[in-house]
Amino acid sequence: MDELNTVAIIGLGLIGSSIARAAGAALPGSSLTGFDSDEAVRRRAAELGLVAVVDSAADAVRDANLVILCVPVGAMTAAAESIAPHLRPGAIVSDVGSSKASVAAELERVLSVARVVPAHPVAGTEQSGPDAGFASLFRGRWCILTPGETSDGPALLALRAFWQALGARVEVMDAHHHDLVLAVTSHVPHLIAYTIVGTASDLEAVTEGEVIKYSAGGFRDFTRIAASSPVMWRDIFLANKDAVLDTLQRFGEDLSLLQRAIRNDDGETLLDLFTRTSAIRRGIVEMGQDTAAADFGRTHEQG
Ligand SMILES: NC(=O)C1=CN([C@@H]2O[C@H](COP(=O)(O)OP(=O)(O)OC[C@H]3O[C@@H](n4cnc5c(N)ncnc54)[C@H](O)[C@@H]3O)[C@@H](O)[C@H]2O)C=CC1
Ligand SMILES: O=C(O)C(=O)Cc1ccc(O)cc1
């Protein structure tokens, strides 16, 4: 199996810096290099000692046998173009983008000579930047690999072993299926959070500032999600347009049914749905997929 002992990280924000921290701890013999197009981020990553920070993408990838692109989805093509001529023969190139089909197509187009294996660690927070990362972010979380027709078997096995070393559970999935699943479980929920927080803010004039003052648990949870990186989420919605629009269509129809139930004093419909959703929450908690474990890791294991 390929030994991934020289890893280059392009983009040193939340996810790139978390990979650097986790790989530094889990793979002590490996060499880590990194580049970010933002000079302030490069300076901060160097201060934190996350990786050997260099001044160009070319220098970062020259000796690497694994390159991971950790930039917003809309910047993947530019990042791939910046490394393409400088890759070592046989290098594996992966990414961490939250949407997969369009990113994978671009990586395969731009990096036709590299061994491309797209990936998505389904773990994160609402924060950004190199200070926000932490070593335990991926522990016990899923990392979904979406190999294309050109991905080779040994590269897939090597990347699987890399993410497992960082503590992740690895699943292999078709990229379009990934995008549909994540539209339902992550992308549309973020859009709903952005919408409700925007609506509440617009209503502040009517409610005389009391929305924010009396914001209860549910609304506070939405404000956390709606504080996520604007650039990153703009890119995700534009990249996963079809699956997001299909899911929104279904959501709109279901919302109309609830609207009608409320208007018609149809308590039975409301009770049926709320009972069903409460069972779903219990199932998630039992599977250990709620955020408590990650929050615990963030609070107790910064580093
Ligand atoms: N934030 C989260 O919770 C999660 C994010 N992701 C995905 O990870 C990727 C990175 O997200 P974050 O780390 O949260 O973002 P971030 O904003 O913390 O970091 C992204 C970094 O990429 C740099 N960058 C942008 N274009 C570049 C280029 N062409 N070359 C080099 N550096 C460049 C930026 O300067 C920035 O420092 C995104 O594709 C996102 O969809 C995946 C899982 C979770
Ligand atoms: O902070 C949260 O609740 C998240 O949902 C983080 C997150 C954001 C994007 C991803 O692709 C995966 C995880």
TrEMBL record:
Catalytic activity from the UniProt record: prephenate + NAD(+) = 3-(4-hydroxyphenyl)pyruvate + CO2 + NADH
PROSITE patterns: PDH_ADH (PS51176)
Enzyme Commission numbers on file: 1.3.1.12
Origin: domain of life: Bacteria
Pathway involvement of the protein, from the record: Amino-acid biosynthesis; L-tyrosine biosynthesis; (4-hydroxyphenyl)pyruvate from prephenate (NAD(+) route): step 1/1
Keywords from the UniProt entry: Amino-acid biosynthesis, Aromatic amino acid biosynthesis, NAD, Oxidoreductase, Tyrosine biosynthesis
Stored InterPro entries: 6-PGluconate_DH-like_C_sf, NAD(P)-bd_dom_sf, PDH_C, PDH_N, Preph/Arog_dehydrog, Prephen_DH
Chain ranges of the Prephenate/arogenate dehydrogenase domain: 5-292
Family, similarity comment: Belongs to the prephenate/arogenate dehydrogenase family.
Protein name: prephenate dehydrogenase
Organism from which the protein derives: Sphingomonas ginkgonis
